[in-house]
Amino acid sequence: MPITFNVISRKNPMSPSDPPKFYADIVGNGQTTLDDLAKYASTISTVSKADILAVLESTFSKIADDVADGKIVYVGEYFTLQAGGSSIGKETEAEVNASCITTLKTIFRPGKLIKDAMKLAEVKKK
């Protein structure tokens, strides 16, 4: 199934008097759940769906804990996750403390397998 997009118009905030330009906006097309992953894995292996779900749940729980502990989590050639964030700037190094951090987020970096899949992905207008 191809990646789909809608066409949207956007004005340039730096030049509001210019006419808008049109852009492709990628849209989600369905979803895949943990249950779907386990069901698929059970059809191509001898392991039951329940066993696969147990392994996936414990694996993703460990990934979440490790990212929250500040570790960089490498998931083979699939992806890497780590914590990132934004903070308020201060005049001196001594003024910077944990309360300066305004947002925490998860940084996702696709690995080789996901990058290669995206290179081969088909894209079509919705």
Structural class of the helix and strand makeup?
alpha+beta
Number of helices: 3
Taking all Cα atoms into account, the compactness measure Rg is: 21 Å
What assembly state would you assign to the polypeptide chains in this entry? Answer: single chain
Hey, roughly how much beta strand do the residues contain?
25-35%
Tell me the series of helices and strands, N- to C-terminal: EEHHEEEHE
Task: Describe the main β-sheet briefly.
Answer: 3 strands, mixed
Helix content: 25-40%
Stretches where pLDDT is under 50 for at least 5 consecutive residues are none
Please report the total strand number as a whole number.
6
The average pLDDT is 93
Distance between the termini: 12 Å
* Strand order in the sheet with the most strands: 2-1-6
Mass-distribution shape: flat
Organism: Chryseobacterium taeanense
Keywords: DNA-binding
Protein name: DNA-binding protein, histone-like, putative
InterPro entries: HU-HIG, IHF-like_DNA-bd_dom_sf
Textual characterization of the structure:
The mean pLDDT is 93. The strands form two sheets. This protein has a three-stranded mixed β-sheet with strand order 2-1-6, with no helix packed on it. A three-stranded antiparallel β-sheet has the order 3-4-5. The protein has three helices and six strands; from the N terminus they run E-E-H-H-E-E-E-H-E. The protein has helices at residues 34-43, 49-68, 112-120; strands at residues 3-10, 21-27, 73-75, 79-87, 101-110, 123-125. With 126 residues, it is an alpha+beta fold. Helix 1 (34-43) crosses helix 2. The protein is 31% helix and 32% strand. Strand 3 (73-75) and strand 4 (79-87) form a beta hairpin. The chain starts with a strand and ends with a strand. It has a domain at 32-69.
